[in-house]
Design brief:
Low-confidence stretches: none
CATH topology of the largest domain: FAD/NAD(P)-binding domain
CATH architecture of the largest domain: 3-Layer(bba) Sandwich
Mean pLDDT: 96
Structural class: alpha+beta
Number of domains: 2
Strand order of the largest sheet: 6-7-5-15-16-17-14-18
CATH superfamily of the largest domain: FAD/NAD(P)-binding domain
Helix content: 10-25%
Number of strands: 22
Length: 409
Amino acid sequence: MRRVVVIGGGVTGVLSAWELARAGHEVTLVEARALGSGASSRSAAGIRAQFGLAATVSGQVYSERFYEGWTERLPSSQPCFTQNGYLFLKSYADDLDAVRALVRMQRQAGLAEVEFLDRAAVDERWPFLDTTGVTAATWCPRDGFLFPAVIYQDGAEAARALGATIVQNDAVVGAERDGGLARAVALASGRRIEADVFVNAAGFMANTVSKMFGGRDLPITVERRYVYFLTGLKAASDWGLGPEDFPRLPMIVTPCGAYARPENAQLLMGWLQFPKPVAATLDNQDEVEPGFGIGATDYGAAVRKEVTQVLPAAQDMGRLASVTTGFYDVTPDHNPLFGYDGAVGNLVHAAGFSGHGLMHAPFSALIVAELVARGADVPALELPFGLGPVDLGIYALDRSYDLREGLVI
């Protein structure tokens, strides 16, 4: 077994540390701040297996089953998954034959529960929606929302119980090389940790970490995204949605890509409509840019207007209560990066999740554990639950980026 340092204490890093410790490796996880201090604690926290590429669909089916069985794996924890479903609404601009083909692919990849619905079926199941301009939808009741803090906090405790060491509030500030291999990392505290393999799970800081090792320039841009919170229903809406129904709302994705779901007594909303690269640091994650707040002329009002087009009850809710922000680490095709660096022979990258890191994390952890076990890149992975082999070529570091993930919400 090998000595492994995992850099990054978000959900991907924590579950990777747990999988590696389960396999018997000597694991140290290093987080510059507290666990979950990056995107994991700022996520919209959705999880779905409705993706556009078969390998990701199969991997996400595994992730959903992993989270469904969370308390069986970690009996001292609590459930981390609410399965309200995901509803992707389609309009006249969408090619419905292509949508039907997408659903067939998703079913073949293991997502048996996904359905193609015509407008009449949408109206029957969700009569409180305004389907003007909606022509169809895809729906999967197995999808839903996660509780990130439960995952990264209790996942870290489970890794510790298996012998892993968790280091917090101590950033990696340097790496020692011996030829083409890394030998140790230096921490801000002065501590030095030797290892056989180093895993870069640093999210939007992944490129900084790679360069620290003398590794490759990862094809990642960092984009800021916003999540808005609208106070919820206090009385039944004229559209037939009552306060008792509100907690059971699915994640609703409009034809234009805005989304909304319940978050306790509030409606969480987002719309990654105008992303732009930013200079991201650990200290500017929560800066709200001018024009993206919750005022009447700010972006939050535009998000609410778009959501209200399909969920008219949102106009009967209260004010925009707050906005949160954070970063996505985005690749050219919106698929993540997994593999050995090349320039540094024992540096493994697990980054570039393009907003899908939380939902992808159980699948990611399996890939990381397999990379460490083999000591080389992994072309395919055999998934549990009878899901079969998955081609990992779409995640390779040196891919051509021609298989773009189209469902990026």
